[in-house]
Amino acid sequence: MTAIKICGITREADAALAVDLGANAVGFVLWPKSPRHAELQRVKMITATLPPFVTPVGVFVDASADDLARAAQAGVRLAQVHGRVPVSSALPLLRAVHLGDNPDGLDAEVGPFETILLDAHDPVLHGGTGRTVDFARAASVAARRRIILAGGLTPANVRDAIGAVRPYAVDVASGVEAGPGVKDPVKLRAFIEAVKECV
């Protein structure tokens, strides 16, 4: 089954529902300019409630090694990094990249065996925009490496996205929200059920 990450978590109830429905990871946006920004103290409270096989992911933009170290102390176990990558890290890194003109179809150089998060490009918001990537081009990348597909996914289009791209995992934020950082239980359930129906 395609793995599922629910991103932009700011409330314990939303994290609990995501876990109960079968999410494999929950994401906390630790970039202060995001409308889904979560304070580290809240992240620490929520990560303490997660079962051991659900991965808490910190989402960063141009993060420093100190930023990642503080997140690790708050219970984050994986850093999703947009923009500049720190030289050293207290956490394993997941690079967020976009479709581009490099020979491998990406906008950044990444290792051949590196799992990446492929998102719609936005130089200001860095994600959570509700815009999708080009599924045909994403599929050509997914045929050569593991990708986590993000960008504009919703309960209505996630089946088509998985069918077209065949990603290792999908990542959703705005597509299951009632408002920034507040998940809609009906949309969340519908999204996860749609992913589980894919074979």
Account of the 3D structure:
This protein is of the alpha/beta class. It has one domain (3-196): Aldolase class I (TIM Barrel), CATH 3.20.20.70. It has six helices and ten strands, in the order βαβαβαβββαβαβββα. The strands form two sheets. The chain has an eight-stranded parallel beta barrel, surrounded by four helices. It has a two-stranded antiparallel sheet with strand order 9-10. α1 (12-21) runs parallel beside α6 (185-196). The termini are close together. The model has no long low-confidence stretch (mean pLDDT 92).
Tags for this model:
199 residues, alpha/beta, TIM Barrel, two-stranded antiparallel sheet, 6 helices, 10 strands, globular
Q: How does the SSE layout of this entry go?
A:
Layout: E1 3-6, H1 12-21, E2 25-29, H2 40-47, E3 55-61, H3 65-73, E4 78-82, E5 93-97, E6 116-118, H4 135-142, E7 147-149, H5 158-165, E8 169-172, E9 177-179, E10 182-183, H6 185-196
Parallel strand pairs: 1-2, 1-8, 2-3, 3-4, 4-5, 5-6, 6-7, 7-8
Antiparallel strand pairs: 9-10
